[in-house]
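Researcher: We're teaching a course module on how sequence relates to structure. For the next exercise, students receive a sequence and then see the predicted structure as C-alpha cells, so they can try to spot secondary structure elements on their own. Here is the exercise chain.
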Amino acid sequence: MDPDHHHPMPSQPPDHWQVLVLRPPPVFSVHEQYFSKFQILKAYESPLPTLDFLHSHAQSVKVLLCSGARPITADVIRSLPELQLVVSDATGVNHIDMAECRRRGIRVTNVGDVFSDDVADGAVGLLMDVMRRISGGDRFVRGGSWPDTGDCCYPLGSKLLDCEMSLYQHPLVFLISMDPDHHHPPPSQPPDLRQLLVLHPPPVFSVHEHFFSKFHILKAYESPLPTLDFLRAHAQSVKVLLCSGARPITADVIRSLPELQLVVSAATGVNHIDMAECRCRGIKVTNLGDVLSDDVADGAVGLLMDVMRRISGGDRFVRGGSWPPDAEAGGCYPLGSTVSIFLYIHIIVFL
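Model: And here is the predicted structure for the students to work with:
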C-alpha cells in the first residue's frame, strides 16, 4: 500500500482499509482478530435500507466481495457506478448477474485457492463419513435404536485398504485345529488349509474374500443343527476361539468346547467373555494386538472432522428438509490460519 495515495479516517490507523458489511458473516466470530486490521462499515447496524446505504457509498466502492448466500442482482450492481471488480468466495457465478456485469465491463473472479483446504477437508470428511458410516451411526443413536437392537450392533463401515483382515463386530468365528496332524479337510480342499468355523456370516466376508480363501470355512449358519449342537460336533478340534463384542462368549459356549485353550477377542475389553469360566478352565484370554488400531484412528479422525466440519449436522439439516428456507453455517477450522481477503479500495461483503 502506498501511504501517499491512502487517506483513512482520522480515527483509524493509516493502514486501515474500509470494509462495508451488509450482514454480519459467521467468519466474524471465528476470525474476529483479523478484522481489527480493517475499518468495518456495518450496514446491518444502519437504519437506512440496503440500497440507500449502497448509494451513500456509491462513489468509493470499486471492488465487491460476495458469497453465494446473497445474490448480486442488477439492482445492487447499478447502485455502485464505480464498481470495477466482483470477487466471489463461492463456487460458480449463479448468484451474480453476469449479464449486467458484461454490460458494464465489470470483471468477475474468485478468491483463488483460499478455500482449497476447506474443500479438501470436506471431501475427506465426507469420504470417511460414508466409509465409516459416521452420520448413519449418529442417526442410529439419536433415533433411539441403540437399546432396541439386542446383540445385533450397528456395523462398522468398510475400509479402502487391501489389508489382511480387520474383524470387528462379526458374531462368532472359531479357528479350528491349528495342528495339521489333527486337521482333516475335505478332499476338495488343499491339505495345508486351516479350518475356520463361522457361526454367522460376518460382513467382512465380502470385504476380505481373498483372506478367507486361505481357510477351509465351516459354515455353521448353513447347518440345520442348533448352534450348541454344531459346536459339540466339532468340540474335539476347537482349540482357539476368535470372537468380537457383538455376541457374548458365555459359559455354555465355553463348556461346549472341551479342548479350548485360547480366546482371542477382536473387541476392546472382556465384558463379553465369561472370565470366571475361563479362569476355572485355565483358558488364556488375549486380544488381536494392534489389528484395530487403524480402525480406531479412522474413527477418531472421522469423528473429529465430523464435529469440526459439522458433517452429521449437515446430514440432519438436509434430511430434515431445512435446506431451502435456511442457510447452514459451515464448520469451524481448527487452525490459526489467516483470512485471505482480496481488498482494493473499499469492499462490500455480502455474507
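Model: If you want an answer key for the exercise: The first strand starts at residue 17 and ends at 21. Residues 116-132 form the longest helix (17 residues).
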